[in-house]
Amino acid sequence: MLSGGRSRIVLRRGVVGAVAVALLFTAPPADADDVRGGQEAVIKTLALTQAWRVSKGAGVTVAVLDSGVDPRHRDLVGSVRVGRDFTEGANPPGVTPSRLHGTYMASLIAGHGHGPQGKRGIIGVAPEADVLSVRVILEDEEPGFREFNSAERFENVVARGIRYAVDEGADVINMSISKELATREERAAIRYAISKGVVLVAAAGNEGDRKIVGDYAPYSYPAAFPGVVSVGATDRRLRRATFSNWNSSVLVAAPGVDIMGAGPGDEYWVGRGTSQATALVSGIAALIKARYPDMSPPLVARAMADSAVDRPPGGYDTATGFGVVNAARALTQASRLAGHTEAAGGDEAQDPALPLAGGQAGPVDVVVRDERHVMVSAAVAAAAAIGALASLAVIFVLVRRVRRAHISQDA
């Protein structure tokens, strides 16, 4: 158990799911390893030390569509640009947003730490990337939460946020959010983003242990849109976390249990959810885009999927997609896809015994297709996704409209 300050447990519950968040510190920890040490498992799993020899995300902007980011947190200061607030008018005048969820996600993507050589605090996957904060959701406890989730004028804030982020120069858009149903405007906004070369990453949702439809968990949006990298969460053993939605929209997975992150006011939090897993994957997308800025969204998605580790039997399943992302291997695969020869260093990145570590780019054929599940390779998934978006804008809606869509920050 981490020490150094008062602690409390907060269960943040939304329409689609819940994420447990524990406040760890309200003052600077006495030991520099208290926070960074809590990240060791994630750093190792994602092979970040090796990946940082190739890319740290410099020059890339990741738009965080969320509840807002605290630009003054010591682990994010200088890296955050505060953009539009599309929730304006939901809260009563004078209410200051708490910005917990958004700050937490931003730190996992682009935290740069603080103190001597930045060795204290949170280090994100892409510590040299910039963050564009776009507020499109409210925290559960904000007084305008109910108004925001019921008023028609806020129905397409996500679509507007996506378009805004693209026009503001985002290279990657992180959406650690989910909702039950899709809108035409969101689909069009995603098509617009992909046409501009922007990688979209979204949470698969947290209903995997509570709500089952047939033999799969519900589809969540924007994750289930073609062209969006849908991310599931894994536990400490790198198996599907019980809460993580499992369905054929899931492309890859990342750690989502006991994830250390930053909170407003120089606090530190630990929690679980597909939100955290999504932020980690967005960070890897930022590393790739920094190294290969012209790489298209489908190829970025393929690089992450082709290079995943802990691949399920047969290469794909609805629980973790093509497997758990690995930053060093993803950069190696991106170099192949980009026609380059340089690769991320380190034994883990180069180990030929690992699946898809060398030679072939991976399978490109359809594995299984039936009424409920579509299992495809990274190449087919990405290429089909962009093709569908660019031409017919097809989307499979596998849930009925039983009530008006609500947005939850707790993906």
Give the helices and strands, then pairings.
Blueprint: E1 8-13, E2 18-25, H1 33-36, H2 40-45, H3 48-51, E3 61-66, E4 80-85, H4 100-110, E5 112-114, E6 120-123, E7 130-135, H5 145-148, H6 157-167, E8 172-175, E9 178-179, H7 184-195, E10 199-203, E11 229-234, E12 252-255, E13 259-263, E14 267-271, H8 274-291, H9 297-306, H10 327-337, H11 347-350, E15 368-369, E16 374-375, H12 378-390, E17 407-408
Parallel strand pairs: 3-7, 3-8, 4-7, 8-10, 10-11, 11-12
Antiparallel strand pairs: 1-2, 2-14, 5-6, 9-17, 13-14, 15-16
Helix pairs in contact: 4-8, 6-7, 8-10, 9-10, 9-12
Describe this entry's structure for a reader.
The chain is an alpha/beta fold. The chain has one domain (8-396): Rossmann fold (3-Layer(aba) Sandwich), CATH 3.40.50.200. Helices cover 26% and strands 18% of the residues. It has twelve helices and 17 strands. It has helices at residues 33-36, 40-45, 48-51, 100-110, 145-148, 157-167, 184-195, 274-291, 297-306, 327-337, 347-350, 378-390; strands spanning 8-13, 18-25, 61-66, 80-85, 112-114, 120-123, 130-135, 172-175, 178-179, 199-203, 229-234, 252-255, 259-263, 267-271, 368-369, 374-375, 407-408. The strands form five sheets. Strands 4-7-3-8-10-11-12 form a seven-stranded parallel beta sheet, with helices on both faces. A four-stranded antiparallel beta sheet has the order 1-2-14-13, covered by helices on one side. A hairpin with a 5-residue loop joins strand 5 and strand 6 (120-123). Residues 1-32 and 346-409 have low confidence and may be disordered. Keywords: Hydrolase, Membrane, Protease, Serine protease, Signal, Transmembrane, Transmembrane helix.
